[in-house]
Design brief:
Keywords: Oxidoreductase. By secondary structure, this protein is of the alpha/beta class. The protein is built from seven helices and seven strands, in the order E-H-E-H-E-H-E-H-E-H-E-H-H-E. It is globular. Bound molecules: NADP nicotinamide-adenine-dinucleotide phosphate. The site of NADP nicotinamide-adenine-dinucleotide phosphate has 30 residues, from helix 1 and helix 4.
Length: 238
């Protein structure tokens, strides 16, 4: 129970990777505060996570709301951010506004969240952001997402210097089976998962729990900062 009595804030902790991160921290003895936009998802997450979890409605793109949220939270140990919209599409035809909107979410949302959280994070604490394997190995149609993920990783290196001794790291997942793909038609989704699984050294798409352990590691390990942990089933080597 190395994280016993830690207070952990997970922005995006009501679904997918973030929800699995919340469970993993609870298993280590921490108390968790999950935040996202949908009241419905927050209620469902609280029911699933139990009494050591609380939840708040928050859109991390809104700087004033994010500041007010962290003032309510007060001092805490570890920040995890898993919220963020991606964007995919052919570079020539993807509207610039769509790329900017994804930047507003996944890059600027994480930037704004760290800025508002920092005065409340204990000096012994940690911040872990989220990028994605397309930052290192983009397929076709991922130029904007590759730029966003690379920007998040660069931000964490800068913040590791600016926020020290608070540690700042990034988890970069490969393909993970989460509700982010729930908008896809089932056959198309399963086809994509199968194709990606076959292309990987480890021959399966990740479960959120496999990714969540990386966030716990980065909160626990007191000598890691400015790093990006790639958890991608061998995508970078295949
Ligand atoms: N799944 C993958 O294959 C994969 C691969 C590489 C990287 N990633 C990255 O991992 C992160 C998590 O993805 P996931 O698959 O776990 O997605 P997910 O299941 O859709 O979860 C996203 C979470 O973020 C919250 N959220 C989204 N926009 C928000 C906003 N503006 N303000 C506050 N909360 C917001 C959502 O809740 P609300 O809707 O209630 O706001 C939800 O709790 C994302 O950054 C994604 O790009 C995922």
């Amino acid at each position: 129970m190395s994280l016993e009595n830690h207070r952990v804030v997970i922005v995006g902790g009501t679904s997918g990777i973030g929800l699995a991160v919340a469970k993993a921290f609870l298993n280590r003895g921490a108390d968790v505060i999950v935040a996202s936009r949908s009241e419905e998802k927050i209620q469902a997450a609280k029911t699933e996570l139990g009494e050591r979890a609380s939840g708040h409605v928050l859109d991390f793109r809104n700087e004033e709301n994010v500041k007010a949220f962290f003032e309510t939270v007060g001092e805490f140990d570890d920040l995890v951010v898993t919220a963020g919209d991606g964007v995919m599409g052919p570079f020539e035809s993807l509207p610039v506004d769509e790329a900017k909107s994804a930047f507003d979410s996944k890059f600027w949302g994480q930037y704004v969240t760290v800025k508002a959280a920092l005065p409340h994070v204990k000096k012994s604490g940690s911040i872990t952001l989220t990028s994605g394997v397309y930052g290192q190995r983009p397929p076709q149609g991922a130029s904007a997402l590759a730029a966003i993920n690379s920007a998040v990783e660069g931000l964490a290196r800068g913040l590791a210097v600016d926020a020290a001794p608070i540690r700042v790291n990034v988890v970069s997942p490969g393909l993970v089976d989460t509700p982010i793909y729930s908008g896809m038609e089932q056959t198309a989704r399963e086809g994509m998962f199968d194709a990606v699984a076959q292309s990987l050294l480890l021959k399966h798409v990740a479960k959120p729990e496999e990714i969540a352990e990386a966030y716990v590691y980065l909160a626990e390990n007191t000598f890691t900062t400015g790093s990006t942990m790639q958890i991608e089933g061998g995508a970078l080597l295949s």
